[in-house]
Amino acid sequence: MEQERQGAGRAADDAEPRVAATKGEEDLTLGKTIAAAGLLAITSAAAIAGQGGKAEAPRAREAGVTIGVLPAGPRNAITDVAGVRVGHVTIEEGRDVHTGVTAVVPHGGNVFRSRVPAGFVAYNAFGKFAGSTQVVELGEIETPILLTNTLNVPEAMAAAVEWTLAQPGNEKVRSVNAVVGETNDGFLNDIRRRRVTIADARRAIEAAREGPVAEGAVGAGTGTVAFEYKGGIGTASRRLPAAMGGWTLGVLVQSNYGGVLNIAGVPVGRRLGRHEFAGRVERGTADGSVVIVIATDAPLSDRNLRRIAERAFIGIGRTGSSFSNGSGDYAIAFSTHAAVRREEGKAGAVGATAAELRNEAMSPLFQAAAEATEEAVINSLFAAGTVTGHRGTAEQLPLDKVLPWVVDAGK
User: Fold this and answer.
1) Distances (CA, A) of 228 to 7, 42, 356, 377
2) For the region Disordered, what residue ranges are annotated (predicted)?
3) What CA–CA distance (Å, rounded) separates 105 from 83?
4) Of the residues 132, 329, 335, 380, which is catalytic?
5) Which DSSP letter does residue 22 get?
């Protein structure tokens, strides 16, 4: 996608593969087998926070950083939307391989036969987002959403296709629109090795569970860099007050972009002197990418889901991005509400439009999308520990310096 990031870092000697702890009873046997081979870790959404970085690093909200005005859901994660599942496969081998796959599954049923309405936005389309044209045309998603690195999009697509064809009831399916987003992790990961396999990507789907979501250097965020620090996977949610519908909206991001970092309005990047406009623009490195996945239980049309996807970029802008020329910035939003599902084989040809929210009810959800996206990015930075990789080191955001600025400013 974007130009590979340049950066200085002390190269580390090749080390034994780091295998993160496998969480969840469902994956225990498989996780032990894979860990013994020293190749990868499979993480269900039920994994404890901290798998992707330093376990002691707090999430933004836990550290006293307040973003926005709406309350978060109980997990402050995309899985606060009932039925949504997340799974990661993290691949780390020595110094050179830091990559993986993250899967977001809209619900626990047959997604192909019970499709969810969806909206898609390419804010700056310097990248690849497989399946997006059919999402735009038909306004629906029929597979899990997979995130990975730029050069392994074909493997993730094949995994989504294979998994979908294998689901009971899909024996006669002859066309599948796989939905796959990507960012370029070529600074920390030897991306030309194309290490992610079809089997790896399928495992991410199979590992997907409800519950807390691992963040930081995990799954598709294993090798990503944001604002010249270690980025990764982040998530957050908002639950509207009952007077505004009581709906839940959750966001998951793959952060791999730059700019001048702001946290809750505080110019952190400027104070640290670490940003891509501090003498680096002339070297062509002020680029980056982000993929935003948004889920809600509000009954929305694909048109209004596209409008929600657009508002997510308000949150990205608040973190300090200017959506540079080489940036691939994508958002995809879907609704899980039963009334707006596109059920295959349902009698009649008329869609369930009467149950959709009116335009006048959208403003609180727009606010929720902006706030949750901003917080998800900050969570991705807080959770990601320092990683030394293929071409250098991406350091963890120095929370000891940052938190006093940000927490004090919010009082």
Assistant:
1) 8, 27, 42, 14
2) 1-24
3) 8
4) 329
5) P
| Residues 6+ positions from 134 with CB-CB distance below 8 Å | 177
Choosing from 44, 114, 255, 289, the catalytic residue is 289
Nearest to 181 by CA among 122, 235, 229, 236: 122
**Residue 342 confidence (pLDDT):** 95
| Tens digit of each residue's pLDDT (9 = 90 or more) over 78-128 | 999 999 999 999 999 999 999 999 999 999 999 999 999 999 999 999 999
Among candidates 159, 150, 222, which has minimal Cα distance to 191? 150
Q: How far apart are CA 279 and CA 167, in angstroms?
A: 52
Residue 175 designated active-site: no
In this structure, are residues 203 and 156 in contact, taking their beta carbons and an 8 Å threshold? no
On the 0-12 / 13-18 / 19+ scale of CB atoms within 10 A, 334 is buried
170-183 burial code (b ≥16 CB/10 A, e <16):
beeeeebbbbbbbb
Output the average pLDDT for the chain.
Answer: 86
274 pLDDT tier (thresholds 50, 70, 90)? confident
Q: Is 83 exposed, middle or buried (0-12, 13-18, 19+ CB in 10 A)?
A: middle
pLDDT at 47: 44
Q: Does the annotation mark 322 as catalytic?
A: no
- Identify the structural domains of the chain with CATH numbers, from first to last: 27-47+63-344+353-394 (3.60.70.12)
Tell whether the model's pLDDT for residue 363 goes beyond 60: yes
* Residues 372, 404: Cα–Cα separation, whole Å: 22
Which of these, 319, 335, 337, lies nearest to 327 by C-alpha position? 319
Contacts of 189 (CB under 8 A, 6+ apart): 96, 97, 98, 99, 149, 195, 222, 223, 389, 390
Phi-psi region of 227 (alpha: psi -120 to 50; beta: other; left: phi over 0): left
- Please, are residues 331 and 292 in contact by the beta-carbon 8 Å criterion? yes
Give dist(CA 289, CA 270) in Å, integer.
21
Q: How far apart are CA 226 and CA 381, in angstroms?
A: 8
Is 289 in the active site?
Answer: yes
Active-site choice (44, 301, 327, 380): 327
